[in-house]
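Fill in residues.
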C-alpha cells in the first residue's frame, strides 16, 4: 500500500484541536482511498519554548525534511511568548528554509455559509509570495532606547523570487479562468514594486492566453469587497498577500473557512499545510474551534500528495456538512460535532 509520511505540528491553542480533527478526517479518507498516512507528532509550540528555551530543537528543520509533507495547526501564545519570538522560531523559518515560495489561499463561499457581502458568486485564488519581500527579516535597530532610535526593515525582492511566484500564478490562472491580477503599490514604491510590474509584463509574454491586470493594493482591497466575482487568480507579495487573505477570509464567512498551502513547487523539500487562522487564545480550550479551514487545508495536502480523488471526497464531505448548516455559524457547533459530521459525510 502506498504510504505518505506526514509531520504533524499541532502547535498552540486551537491549533491542537483542529489538527486532531483534520487527522481523523484524513485517516478516514486514506482508508477509503486505499493508501496510508503515517503521522509523526512534534510538540513544538510556545509551551515547548517555555520548557526548553526554543520553539524547536536546533536540528528541527532537518528532522522535518525527511517527511513528505507537514500539517500545522497554529503557532503563537502571545500572553507568554512574544509573537516575534514564536513565529521566527518555527513557522517562518520552515516556509523560508523549505523554499515554500507559493502560499496558496482559496477564497470562495462554501454552501450554507453566509458572506458579509451581497455578492456571493466569487472564487478567488490568492497566491502569496512566501519567502522574501517584506518578510525578509533584513534590517536592524540602532541607538536603542534613546530619542535617536532608528528601526529599519528592508523589503527584499529578487528576480528569482518575483519571477517564480508570478510564473506559478500564471500556471494556476491557465488551469482556471485565465485571469491574473498582479498586486503592487508601484505608484508609491518606485523600486521594488516597479520591478515587480516589469517582471509581470515579461512573464506575461509566455502566457498570451492569460489576461493580466495590474492593481494597486489599495484598489485591490476595495475590489475584493465591491466586486470579488471579477477576480480569478490574485498574486501578491508576502505582506500584501497576508493582508489580502485576511480580507479574503472575511468575505468567505470568516477565518474558520480560510485554508492555505505553503508549497515548494519543485518538491525539493516538504510543503506545509495550515489553516490561515491562528491559535485563537480567546476560544482555546472551549472546544468550539471550527475545524473546516484545517480540514480544507488537509484536502489541499492530499491533492499535493497525488491523492486527488481523496482530496475531492474530503471537499465534498465538507460541502455536504456546511450545506446542512453544520459549522456555518461561529461558536454554534462544537469542533467534535463538525468533525463527526464530516466523517459521516465521507462514509
Ligand atoms: C499568516 C499569519 C502569519 C503571516 C503570521 C502568524 C506570522 O498571519 O499565515 O497569514 O503573517 O504569515
Ligand atoms: Mn495572516
Amino acid at each position: 500500500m502506498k504510504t505518505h509520511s506526514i509531520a504533524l505540528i499541532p502547535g498552540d491553542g486551537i491549533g491542537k484541536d483542529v489538527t486532531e480533527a483534520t487527522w481523523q478526517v484524513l485517516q478516514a479518507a486514506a482508508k477509503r482511498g486505499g493508501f496510508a498516512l503515517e503521522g509523526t507528532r512534534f510538540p513544538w509550540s510556545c509551551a515547548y519554548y517555555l520548557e526548553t528555551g526554543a520553539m524547536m530543537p536546533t536540528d528541527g528543520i532537518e528532522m522535518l525534511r525527511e517527511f513528505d509533507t507537514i500539517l500545522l495547526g497554529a503557532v503563537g501564545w502571545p500572553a507568554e511568548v512574544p509573537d516575534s519570538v514564536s513565529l521566527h522560531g518555527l513557522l517562518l523559518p520552515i516556509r523560508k528554509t523549505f523554499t515554500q515560495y507559493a502560499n496558496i489561499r482559496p477564497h470562495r463561499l462554501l454552501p450554507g455559509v453566509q458572506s458579509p457581502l451581497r455578492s456571493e458568486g466569487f472564487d478567488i485564488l490568492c497566491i502569496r509570495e512566501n519567502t522574501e519581500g517584506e518578510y525578509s527579516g533584513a534590517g536592524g535597530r540602532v541607538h536603542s532606547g534613546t530619542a535617536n532610535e532608528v528601526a529599519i526593515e528592508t523589503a527584499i525582492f529578487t528576480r528569482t523570487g518575483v519571477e517564480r511566484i508570478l510564473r506559478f500564478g500564471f500556471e494556476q490562472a491557465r488551469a482556471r479562468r485565465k485571469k491574473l491580477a498582479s498586486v503592487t503599490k508601484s505608484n508609491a514604491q518606485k523600486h521594488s514594486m516597479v520591478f515587480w510590474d516589469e517582471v509581470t509584463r515579461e512573464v506575461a509574454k509566455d502566457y498570451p492566453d492569460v489576461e493580466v491586470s495590474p492593481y494597486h493594493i489599495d484598489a485591490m482591497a476595495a475590489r475584493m469587497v465591491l466586486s470579488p466575482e471579477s477576480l480569478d487568480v490574485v498574486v501578491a507579495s508576502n505582506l500584501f498577500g497576508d493582508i489580502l487573505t485576511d480580507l479574503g477570509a472575511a468575505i468567505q464567512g470568516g477565518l474558520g473557512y480560510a485554508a492555505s498551502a505553503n508549497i515548494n513547487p519543485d518538491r525539493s523539500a516538504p510543503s506545509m499545510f495550515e489553516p490561515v487562522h491562528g491559535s485563537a487564545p480567546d476560544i482555546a480550550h472551549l472546544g468550539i474551534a471550527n475545524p473546516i479551514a484545517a480540514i480544507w487545508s488537509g484536502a489541499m495536502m492530499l491533492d499535493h500528495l497525488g491523492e486527488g480523488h481523496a482530496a475531492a471526497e474530503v471537499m465534498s464531505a465538507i460541502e455536504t456538512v456546511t450545506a446542512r448548516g453544520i459549522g456555518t455559524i461561529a461558536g454554534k457547533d462544537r469542533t467534535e460535532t463538525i468533525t463527526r459530521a464530516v466523517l459521516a459525510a465521507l462514509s
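The chain has a mean pLDDT of 98.
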